[in-house]
């Protein structure tokens, strides 16, 4: 059966890679840029439009504030980029905001950041894919009619591409991303040349339309609130900036320097494109409205429901290059494609963060291990499932989804930069070198300004977007926080319960002569009980067997084994493809081939849980091994169970069910009374 499922798996994601080939999957800067920065780079396709949409509430006259909003977004972008350059140098292990907050502000702050980032990564996929589908749907009616189905299909396709490995997916994504960047810069340069040098008049397709303002002549607090709301919408250009700090381990050496260089390059490209598009939108008289069917007027008459409002970037391209020209088509195609690929930022950030959280026991352990292609496959699949659910619930409507956006980003920004300030304070307290102290003081000033600015923006975002959908993102963060806290409590409780004592007592159980193999992963109570059981079986040969999936854990196991002086030889099997079942099966079969008359007894220690959800939090290696070993001739499988406290609850439930309705009770009828009269002789 495994071979039948293995063939389509290899067709879809490729052949398995050995663990020692992990270095070959690391990314150079030219590939890392489209892999980790496709989200902030592609956001220029919709962030300028979001600014103009909000300003249109007050009419065309409010568009004059858009350059100042662009300046504020640029200052914020450079502040965040400069702050995160300090992060990647100080914390190159890939924890990013989570590691910074967890180390410097405590576990609760770290978990808050992790919750915010996980929500934002899911939203990144949902918003990017939905926006791309809507852009594509303006040219292909089928996509509009079935946009949820199309969005789900694209998510599945991106998932398969990422399951093949980060380097391969990066190569696929690099070409359209660079075509998009070059196309936007060419549009800005040609538009500036036409306007400033040739003095040509460029007009957008909507230049002749008039906007009917919802609120004419806003002033005072109402105007300030509108500008703050427009600014918070423009901050969509910053989504995904933190992904590089989370993905430092995926860079080639020197990792920190390459990540910092990529951050600076991404920031420069993003702000230049953002400002250029807003500037050209003003020069070409682009008109956008939140409700175009009624608020956009042609000759005093609303354009109606049949009107399709094209994005700002499309209108600017039509004015600069000419509607339908070759360069217009190339840029339009690259824009639609890069919006789909922007989700790849989340496909690289979410699994890496999930792996770190799983290592810290906040998420199921399955998220910590790499798959066949050396990618964090379980994290990729989990992200895809959550994004599909969100797309289905919101009908792939980017306008509704984007209201949930940004909140999580600025929660993580603020806590991360606050944590970096504490980081520098701690190091300055012990550092004596004047040159290093000057560098630390400068870094602290950058992070302090970043913390203040991002906290201010977070307040603005919460105030202006809370009733428009930001509360849903906050609710998602609370759910993630509560779930991860519960998982950590469970793992901590289990670890305490199964912790290995310094001295173990043997059970007086002596089966007949067998060749025994005890499977070992770690040294804890279930392991010691299984070893005690095996030693008292009078086996001809007794050995402990472990599979080397994680070299660090294997090294720790050997050291603990030698420290305790366990008098059972420990054999470690190499597993270059990080499999557990196959190496054990092959080793057991080799024992049978060497001594066909011997019986091999495989002893598997395992602990018993009492709740269905606890099974999801522990891998099922023992179950898979027993299933395979039962069909291996000459092999006996022995489980040595270790009952956790939660199993007592299951035992009590089983007793209650038995008392309520024993097997066959309905068929037999009620049990007879066992009193004196019924038991006496007639």
TrEMBL record:
Q: What is this protein called?
A: DNA-binding protein
Tell me, in one coarse class, where this protein mainly resides: membrane
Residue ranges with Basic and acidic residues bias: 672-682
Q: Does Mitochondrion count among this protein's keywords?
A: no
Q: Any idea which GO molecular function terms this record carries?
A: DNA binding; transmembrane transporter activity
What membrane topology does this protein have? Multi-pass membrane protein
Identify the InterPro entries for this entry.
AA/rel_permease1, APC_K+_Transporter
Its taxonomic placement starts with:
Bacteria, Bacillati, Actinomycetota, Actinomycetes, Kitasatosporales
Where does this protein reside within or beyond the cell? Membrane
TM region positions: 65-84, 111-133, 139-160, 172-193, 218-241, 262-283, 326-353, 374-395, 401-424, 445-463, 469-487
Q: Which GO terms describe its cellular component?
A: membrane
- Which species is this record about? Streptomyces poonensis
- Kindly give the PANTHER family that the UniProt entry links to this protein: POTASSIUM TRANSPORTER KIMA
Alphabetized UniProt keyword annotations: DNA-binding, Membrane, Transmembrane, Transmembrane helix
Q: Where is this region: Disordered?
A: 647-682
């Amino acid at each position: 059966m495994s071979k039948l499922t293995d063939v389509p798996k290899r067709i879809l994601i490729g052949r398995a890679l050995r663990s020692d080939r992990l270095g070959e999957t690391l990314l150079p800067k030219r590939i890392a840029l489209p892999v980790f920065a496709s989200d902030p780079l592609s956001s220029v396709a919709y962030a300028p439009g979001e600014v103009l949409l909000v300003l249109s509430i007050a009419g065309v006259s409010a568009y004059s504030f858009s350059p100042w909003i662009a300046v504020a977004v640029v200052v914020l972008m450079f502040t965040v980029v400069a702050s995160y350059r300090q992060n990647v140098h100080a914390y190159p292990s890939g924890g990013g905001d989570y590691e910074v907050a967890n180390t410097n502000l405590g576990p609760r702050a770290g978990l808050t950041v992790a919750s915010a980032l996980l929500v934002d990564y899911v939203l990144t996929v949902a918003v990017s894919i939905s926006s791309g589908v809507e852009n594509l749907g303006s040219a292909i009616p089928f996509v509009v009619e079935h946009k949820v189905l199309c969005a789900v299909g694209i998510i599945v396709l991106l998932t398969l591409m990422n399951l093949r490995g980060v380097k391969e997916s990066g190569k696929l994504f690099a070409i359209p991303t660079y075509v998009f960047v070059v196309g936007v810069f060419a549009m800005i340069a040609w538009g500036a040349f036409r306007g400033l040098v040739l003095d040509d008049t460029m007009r957008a397709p909507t230049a002749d339309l008039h906007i009917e303002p919802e609120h004419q002549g806003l002033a005072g607090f109402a105007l300030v609130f509108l500008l703050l709301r427009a600014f918070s919408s423009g901050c969509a250009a910053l989504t995904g900036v933190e992904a590089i700090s989370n993905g430092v381990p995926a860079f080639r050496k020197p990792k920190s320097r390459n990540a910092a260089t990529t951050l600076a390059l991404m920031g420069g490209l993003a702000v230049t494109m953002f400002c250029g598009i807003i500037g050209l939108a003003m020069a070409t008289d682009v008109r956008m409205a939140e409700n175009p069917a009624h608020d956009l007027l042609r000759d005093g008459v609303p354009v109606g429901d049949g009107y399709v409002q094209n994005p700002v970037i499309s209108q600017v391209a039509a004015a600069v290059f000419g509607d339908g020209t070759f360069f217009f088509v190339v840029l339009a195609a690259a824009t639609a494609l890069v919006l789909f690929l922007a989700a790849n930022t989340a496909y690289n950030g979410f699994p890496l963060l999930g792996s770190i959280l799983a290592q810290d026991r906040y998420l199921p352990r399955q998220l910590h291990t790499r798959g066949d292609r050396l990618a964090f496959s379980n994290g990729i699949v989990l992200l895809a499932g959550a994004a599909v659910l969100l797309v289905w619930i919101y009908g792939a409507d980017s306008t509704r989804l984007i209201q949930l956006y940004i909140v999580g980003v600025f929660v993580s920004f603020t806590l991360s930069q606050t944590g970096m300030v504490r980081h520098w304070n701690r190091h300055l307290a012990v550092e004596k070198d004047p040159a290093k102290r000057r560098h630390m003081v400068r870094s602290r000033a950058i992070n302090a300004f970043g913390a203040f600015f991002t906290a201010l923006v977070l307040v603005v975002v919460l105030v202006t977007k809370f009733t428009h959908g930001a509360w849903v993102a906050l609710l998602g963060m609370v759910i993630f926080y509560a779930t991860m806290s519960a998982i950590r409590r469970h793992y901590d409780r289990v670890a305490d319960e199964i912790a290995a004592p310094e001295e173990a007592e043997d059970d007086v159980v002596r089966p007949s002569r067998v060749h025994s193999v005890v499977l070992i992963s770690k040294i804890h109570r279930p392991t010691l009980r299984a070893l005690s059981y095996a030693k008292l079986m009078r086996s001809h040969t007794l050995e402990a067997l472990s599979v080397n999936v994680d070299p660090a854990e294997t090294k720790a196991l050997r050291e603990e084994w030698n420290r305790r002086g366990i008098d059972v030889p420990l054999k470690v099997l190499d597993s270059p493809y990080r499999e557990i079942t196959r190496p054990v099966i092959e080793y057991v079969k080799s024992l049978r081939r060497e001594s066909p008359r011997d019986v091999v007894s495989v002893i598997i220690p395992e602990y018993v849980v009492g709740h269905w959800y606890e099974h999801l939090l522990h891998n099922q290696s023992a179950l898979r091994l027993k299933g395979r070993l039962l069909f291996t001739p000459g092999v006996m499988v022995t489980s040595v169970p270790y009952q956790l406290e939660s199993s007592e609850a299951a035992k009590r439930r089983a007793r209650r069910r038995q008392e309520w309705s024993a097997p066959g009770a309905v068929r037999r009828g009620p049990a007879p009374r066992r009193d004196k009269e019924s038991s006496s002789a007639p």
